Every structure is written in C-alpha cells, then in structure tokens.
Amino acid sequence: MPTDEITAAAAGTWTLGDRTVHRMGFGSMRITANPDRDRAIALLRRAVELGVNHIDTAAFYVSPGGTLGVGTGPARYATELIRAAFTPYPEDLVIATKVGFGYDPEAGFTEALTPERLRAQVEENLRRLGRDQLDVVNLRLGRGPGPVPLADRFGALAELRSAGLIRHLGLSNVRRERLDEVAGIAPVVCVQNNYGVDAYREQQDDIVQVCGERGIAYVPFFALAGTGREAGASTAQAEAVEAVARAHGVTPHQVRLAWTLHQGPHVLAIPGTGDPAHLAQNIAAGALRLTPEDLTRLA
Q1: Residue 212 burial (10 A CB sphere; 0-12, 13-18, 19+)
Q2: How many Å apart are CA 261 and CA 256, to the nearest integer?
Q3: Distance CA 133, CA 122 (A)
Q4: Long-range contact list for 242-249, CB < 8 A, 24+ apart?
C-alpha cells in the first residue's frame, strides 16, 4: 500500500459537536520522548500536511517522566510542541485535550476532584497551547466511582464551557452507565477508552454501540499498543492480524487501525508515533478496506 500518496481524508469524516474532522487523527503522547524538539514539530506539521485535522493531547503528556516515564533533559510538553508547530492555528484543526489528571515532576500524577483544580488544569492547557478556547476537553476518570460524584466534576467543566473557555466536552475511561449520569448537564461529543482488536473488547463493545446510537464519537486509545499501553505495541502480533496483513500486503499495525475504523462510522483513530515513516503508514491505513471474511477472522 502506498503511504505518502494517501491522506487522512481516506478514512472519512465525523463531527465533534460542530467541528468536522477526518476519522484518522493523531495522538501526541509519544512525540515528547525524543529530546529533538525540531523533529517533533516537523512530525506534527507533516501529519497536518497529510490531512490530519484532529490531534489528541494532554498537559500531562510530558517527558522526562510523565505518562511514558522516559527521557532526559528539559521538560517537553506535547501541548507546547503543538503550539510551536501550529501558531497561528489552522482554522480546521481540532485539538482535543484531557483534564482530571495532572503531572508534577515531584508529586507525580494527581487527580483533580474540585472545581478549582479542574479550572487550573483547563487554564494550564489554554496557556501551554496558546489558545483562548479549548476545542474539546475530555474529563479523564480514575478507576472506580471516585470520592467525588461524576456529575459534580462534569458540571464544573460545563460551567467553564458556558464561560467560553471550552467549546465541547467528552469523557475518558468511562463505563456505559456513566454517560447517563451526565445527561442533561452538557452534551458529550466523544468518549475515549482503551480498545483494540485484541484488547478490552468484551468490556467496550457495548459502549461502542451506545455511542453510535447517540451520535457520540468513540475515540479509542492504545488501538495499536493494546495491553502494552504506554510501553507501546509489541512486535508479536496475533495470528489473525498477521494473516489479514499478509493477504492485503500491509503491516499488522495498519490492519489494527483499519479494524478500529470498521467498528462504526462514529469511531475515530488517534495513533501516535514519533517516527515519520510510521506516521505515513498509520494515515494510509484509513484507505484499507477489510472484507467481511477479514472481520470474521479478526473477531
């Protein structure tokens, strides 16, 4: 399959609230790992040249430390790299970020449970991105119900949305029933959960379907890494994925991304990489059309 000749438009489009995006986006977590700042900026710009108009990020995507737990040298924030790459921002570029968790080099990860701390995280994202308004803010939840009701935390973000600091809201790391807890507070335009061809499907198939019925974008993270999560994708692939890849003359990673997009027109992909060659391959996966037989095999 050609790579640089295929753009993100091949994956089709979906709307996040009032913003139309290509279903093949880009996840920015891994661009902080390499200390070469110019390389990260060039990769971000190349993604947009290839049609990406939806970038996922978070203020806690930072190296050294951060979610990846790697790196040396001065702090490199994905949000600040995005700002450096795109200021002034293209009008059609949608930046989705997350709050609910933060990272401090000394204290490590902390959870924001009060309106004041949530606002502080929103303001940090605004500052590091150089924006007056955040396009999409996902409330990232921890495991379990938590000590503060979801409606209270989501309501605090809804107030910031009414104040004009946020355009649209989403949820991350949530079960199906939690969508009902925030119904009536503010529209949910997307859900971000861990989901892939061979990871977390039993827990997620139901919410994928519900999101489709409600017109909510489902944006899985770790679609490539699977259970490897922050450690990244393993070189070992499931036999079915390898077989489908051989049949189409593509990489197993491209099959994983194509499978993700085949789960519904409301499903978006946000693969992340720090490698320009992998970037082009990931985006090209939006043009891969799996057959019913492929999908049965992958099931």
Answers
A1: middle
A2: 9
A3: 10
A4: 243/297, 244/290, 244/294, 244/297, 244/298, 247/294, 248/1, 248/288, 248/294, 249/1
61: annotated active-site residue? yes
Three-state DSSP class for 101?
strand
Structure tokens at 253: 């990673």
H/E element, 37: helix 37-49
Helix axes 37-49, 78-86, angle to 10 degrees: 60
Residue type, 36: D
- Please say whether the beta carbons of 189 and 154 come within 8 A: no
User: Which residue's structure tokens are 């019925």?
Assistant: 213
Q: Which amino acid is at 77?
A: Y
For residue 52, which phi and psi values (nearest 5 degrees)? -65, 130
Contact between residue 170 and residue 190 where contact means Cβ atoms under 8 Å apart: yes
The pair phi, psi for residue 97, each rounded to 5°, is -125, 180
Distance CA 132, CA 125 (A): 10
**What gap in Å lies between CA 38 and CA 34, rounded to an integer?**
10
Global pTM value: 0.93
Span 175-210, pLDDT tens digits: 999 999 999 999 999 999 989 888 656 778 899 999
Which residues 6+ apart lie within 8 Å of 34 measured at CB?
Answer: 40, 274
Task: Say if residue 88 is preceded by a cis peptide, omega within 30 of 0.
Answer: yes
Contact by Cβ (8 Å): 221, 193: yes
The answer to whether the beta carbons of residues 134 and 126 sit under 8 Å apart is yes
Which amino acid is it at 236?
A
- Rounded Cα–Cα distance for residues 104 and 60 (Å): 8
Residue 106: alpha-carbon gap to chain centroid: 26
Burial class from Cβ neighbours inside 10 Å (0-12, 13-18, 19+) for residue 175 reads middle
Q: Which of 61, 103, 195, 218 is catalytic?
A: 61
> 159-174, pLDDT tens digit by residue?
999 999 999 999 999 9
